[in-house]
């Protein structure tokens, strides 16, 4: 699916329990293990939204323990 655009080019931002982000075409159902982060737009807009918020790439479980960097 990577590289495909939906008919309207709309995407949504997703986040999982580890506070990791992804995007998904807006027409698709949110997969198990992910939740809607409340942002929808073009692919570039969604990636910009993620870039502004995902400042620590380590999974949340690693950040909480103080390990991993």
Describe the protein in words.
By secondary structure, this protein is α+β, with helices and mostly antiparallel strands. It has a domain at 11-57: Rubredoxin-like. It is 25% helix and 28% strand. A three-stranded antiparallel β-sheet has the order 2-1-3. The mean pLDDT is 87.
Task: List its traits.
69 residues; alpha+beta; Rubredoxin-like; 2 helices; 3 strands
Q: What is the strand arrangement across the widest sheet?
A: 2-1-3
* CATH-level-2 architecture of the domain at 11-57: Alpha-Beta Complex
Largest sheet: 3 strands, antiparallel
Rounded mean pLDDT is: 87
Roughly what fraction of the amino acids lie in strands? 25-35%
Individual helix count = 2
CATH level-1 class of the domain at 11-57: Alpha Beta
Topology:
Layout: E1 11-16, E2 21-25, E3 34-41, H1 43-53, H2 60-65
Antiparallel strand pairs: 1-2, 1-3
Task: Provide a concise account of the structure shown.
Residues 2-52 form the MbtH-like domain. This protein has 69 residues and is of the alpha+beta class.
């Amino acid at each position: 699916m990577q590289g495909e655009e939906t008919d309207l080019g709309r995407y949504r931002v997703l986040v999982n329990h580890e506070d990791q982000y992804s995007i998904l075409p807006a027409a698709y159902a949110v997969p198990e293990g992910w939740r809607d982060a409340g942002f929808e737009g073009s692919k570039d807009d969604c990636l910009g939204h993620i870039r502004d918020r995902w400042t620590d790439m380590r999974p949340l479980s690693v950040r909480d323990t103080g390990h991993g960097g």
